[in-house]
Amino acid sequence: MSVVQGTPPSPGPDTGLDTRRSGPLAVVGSQISLDEELFGQAFDRWVVGRIATYLKPYKRRIAIAVASVLIFTFTQLAIPLVIQTAIDDALVLGPEGQSLLHAAVIAFFGIVTVNYIANHLQELIVGKVASHL
């Protein structure tokens, strides 16, 4: 078998290339519509409306759970910032930064405590609401 340089070998029994595949290996763009046909649309107002009717008696609990998730997320983002302040500002100053370091440690433990409470509250409420549905 002779192969011209710059051109790939044609599929065949002696080239070792798989000739059983049909169609391209990857499909970009047109796959989205096929998925929507198979699994439905990503957002269906009728389905959301039905879920909302089931969740209506738990509106207050769900609002508290969403607030807990937001607080949890905020505290998760605040923890590295407090650590950064402790390292970049308090430790660099040396003995003069001792009061700032104490404030950063107190803030760290306060944020971790609020983080734990928000996470626990969110999981507790979501678990109770889910068990009643």
Explain the overall architecture.
Helix content is 68%, strand content 0%. It is built from four helices and no strands. The protein has helices at 30-39, 45-55, 59-93, 98-132. The chain is elongated. It has a domain at 58-132. With 133 residues, the chain is an all-alpha fold.
What distance lies between the first and last C-alpha atoms, to the nearest angstrom?
Answer: 68 Å
Largest sheet: none
User: Any low-confidence stretches, pLDDT <50, length ≥5?
Assistant: none
Gross morphology is: elongated
**Helical/strand content category:** mainly alpha
Number of strands: 0
Number of DSSP helical runs: 4
Average pLDDT level: 80
* Proportion of residues in extended strands: under 5%
What is the helix/strand order?
Answer: HHHH
**Fraction of residues in H or I helices:** 55-70%
Radius of gyration: 29 Å
Structure summarized in a few sentences:
The protein is mostly helical. Helix content is 68%, strand content 0%. α3 runs antiparallel to α4 (98-132).
Name the descriptors.
single chain; 133 residues; mainly alpha; 0% strand; elongated
